[in-house]
Amino acid sequence: MTQTRLHFTTSKDEAERIFASLETAFEDDGWPIAVLEVDEDRDIHEVSLYADGDIDEAETRLRAVLSSLSADPELGREELPDIDWVTRSLEGLQPVRAGRFFVHGAHDRDQRQEGDIAIEIEAGLAFGTGHHGTTAGCLEMLEQVVASEQPANALDLGTGSAVLAIALAKLSVIPVLATDIDPVATEVAAENVKLNGVAGHVDAVTATGFDHPVFAERGPFALIVANILAGPLIEIAPQMAAHVRPGGSLVLSGILDRQHDAVVEAYVAAGFAHITTLHREGWVTIHLKPSA
Length: 292
What we know:
Helix content: 25-40%
Oligomer: single chain
Number of helices: 10
Largest sheet: 7 strands, mixed
């Protein structure tokens, strides 16, 4: 069935406010809704609704939600081709090596080598599979931190496809909490956790913020890894300080080279010391520890 994307741009705060209302309005339809950062410096974010069926009706409903929020952005339409995206992903998805890790789809199982820590991810759900410099950088940094510190428990905040949570469970058999604000991502994470045989050690939970009770139940954490975006990472720096154990570690990524200093400054102000930074493909992965 052909799908149409209805989209518009607005500020970050407005995008988040509208997104919450759209989730409620279109919950029963099961249509994906997404927010994409287009230009961080100019605070431009794009909100998309992927609808099928009667597109005119979908647009009318979308405009009604916007009107109820006193928002009137210019709407765009994009008709998406009827493509088997899983097959398309398989065609272009190549395995990736990062340290001892080998991240791959089912079609590349035969490329595993002795000594590899293999992580298999469903190719059609390839977000965060290690093909991005941030994920690959995290994998390399996690290997170093786990080897030197042997953490007793860990949190993968904004887990996506759960690559990092799976990596932690395979590096050291410890309990790992994998959280995401997106329930679809959490479902994907849980599927990949089972696929990789670490379901006994990794729990995937949908949690919209540190006020969710699961963080108090499972924390504080000896290691927290968060591969999200610089802006949100800066905002939650004080909360990170409250959820990491004394002597524990943070591994942060999703950060451009030019954003490095701002992130480090925020975390130093929150009581952390900068340990090291790994640079890869224009992105950075930062290791920090509580100062006291």
